[in-house]
Amino acid sequence: MRVLLVIFPLLIYLSTCHGYRILGLFPFQGKSHFVMFEHLMKGLAKKGHQIDVVSKFPLKKPYPNYTDIVTLPTTLRLVNNMSFELMQQLLSSNPTYAVATVGGNELCEFLGNPEIKELAKPKNPPYDAVLIEVFGAQCFGVIAHMLKVPLIGISTTALYPWLFDMIAQPESLAITPSNLLSLTESMNFWQRLQNIVFTTYDKWYFNYLTTREQDRMIREHFGPDMPSVRELEKKVSLVLINSHITLNGIQPKTAAAVDVGGIHVQDEDETLQPELEKWMNDSKDGFIYFTFGSMMMIETFPRKFLTVLYASLGKIAPVRVIMKIPKPEKLPAALPENIYISPWMPQIKVLKHPNIKAFITHGGLMGTQESIACGVPMIGIPLFADQFTNIDRYVARNIALRLDIDTITEESFDAALNAILRDPLYRETARKLSQRFLDRPLNAIDTANYWIEYIIRYGEDSLRSPAMDLTWWQISLIDVIGFLLFCTAIVVAIVVFTVRFVKEMLNENHKSLSYSKKIN
Ligand SMILES: *[C@@H]1O[C@H](CO)[C@@H](O)[C@H](O)[C@H]1NC(C)=O
Ligand SMILES: *[C@@H]1O[C@H](CO)[C@@H](O)[C@H](O)[C@H]1NC(C)=O
Ligand SMILES: *[C@@H]1O[C@H](CO)[C@@H](O)[C@H](O)[C@H]1NC(C)=O
């Protein structure tokens, strides 16, 4: 009894006290990026950590242990509000430039926000770690520097070329294509050449041409003795990456690069409207789910494209279609009867429904990973950014077909719909890939939680690679290879010289021998 009296309070103490205080800084306005942070932060809150979040997306419903500590103002509302013209304007620019400015320098202006400056002052109880998105605005690492706590990065895609060096993750350019290029893992000579040239260019463009302005903002708001943004990047202890071997291929990973691909695939807070559920239940011949993601308004696409959609999708009846349309009143008249429209969808619940046959998508990473997790084959119509590469990868894995927005015709769309609905290959490979994608020793959220706690327990250098202290030519052993070549050259020279010398000596002897013979 006495033992119990001691043990019980101890157990209660242990179960409540292992929670850490974690600050998440996610100023970027991309909703699809925030989906990953939201699920990660909620997952950590559920494990008993106290989570404070700075973002443009405050939670609609309160969540225990999760606080929206600062909500940043939004200038451009893009969720369900991106028209075809705006997409063409915004996204025609170089993607590295877009990340460095809209996703980088412009966000660093928030460092001057009084609420953000307040976060950099010591807290009681103190934070145990700071999480930031590693993308374009690594300037936010200054908060971790000020608080003297570990800095942890989250990447919503496979690493961009300029993010490898911060944790000395090997680039492996022979087998790992840059995620800004439309290449798959098996590359020929010219593709490898293209990979190395563009990767080097993108790194230089990001590191030297566009983001050094962040140094000025860091020092303006936090003092002249602050580290530069490149130095702050080197403080990152761990990067949680939205990638997985089944989708991104096999490559060497340093210990601080941890895959948590599909961490956002959670449907616990989605509500399924009874009307939509009934429509899906009643689709006895199956249905296709069609969306171009959280931002795009399909109704603003060119008339020609919408005419093709109406014609081809109308023809697949009795198979039905569910489409996300933010402003249905803007759609042309005569929507085929087998199409159900709604401004918002509980996407994972729709993808999980037993009657779903296929997913028509723009190829955004988050949505397509959800589709892969649910084993649903896809028709991809990529629009911008990484969507082309994503779809190409899925096509190479036989779980998707690709169509292009500029060249799509009723015939090509009919053919794709027919193949995805009738050829069992796509469904079967999608099902198998789903199994492989989810088959892990520890699920994504537990993996993230484990490594974050590991860094907090053992310190910010506990996963630091010794390669962090070497230059690029030391890492690739160019100095050693150069030295060995030099030694080989010397040995060869000595051998050549000696052989020549001996030969000449022999010749001399021979000559003097024959000379003396003649005299004799
Ligand atoms: C909130 O955190 C506490 C410990 O910090 C934990 O005991 C509790 O279970 C958490 N709440 C929820 C709903 O996860
Ligand atoms: C939608 O975007 C337009 C600009 O394209 C903007 O003027 C409008 O305010 C936005 N709507 C909302 C609800 O934010
Ligand atoms: C749809 O089908 C599921 C499974 O058969 C059932 O649990 C659910 O109640 C049905 N919903 C509606 C609205 O019919």
What's a concise summary of this model?
It contains 20 helices and 13 strands. It has 520 residues and is an alpha/beta fold. The strands form 2 sheets. Strands 3-2-1-4-5-6-7 form a 7-stranded parallel sheet. A 6-stranded parallel sheet has the order 10-9-8-11-12-13, with helices on both faces.
Question: What's the topology here?
Answer:
Blueprint: H1 2-17, E1 21-26, H2 31-46, E2 50-55, E3 66-71, H3 84-91, H4 95-108, H5 114-119, E4 129-133, H6 141-147, E5 151-155, H7 189-210, H8 213-222, H9 229-233, E6 236-241, H10 245-248, E7 257-259, H11 274-282, E8 287-290, H12 303-315, E9 320-324, E10 339-342, H13 347-352, E11 356-361, H14 365-373, E12 378-380, H15 387-396, E13 400-402, H16 410-422, H17 424-438, H18 444-458, H19 472-475, H20 478-519
Helix pairs in contact: 2-18, 4-7, 12-16, 16-17
The structure holds 2-acetamido-2-deoxy-beta-D-glucopyranose (3 copies).
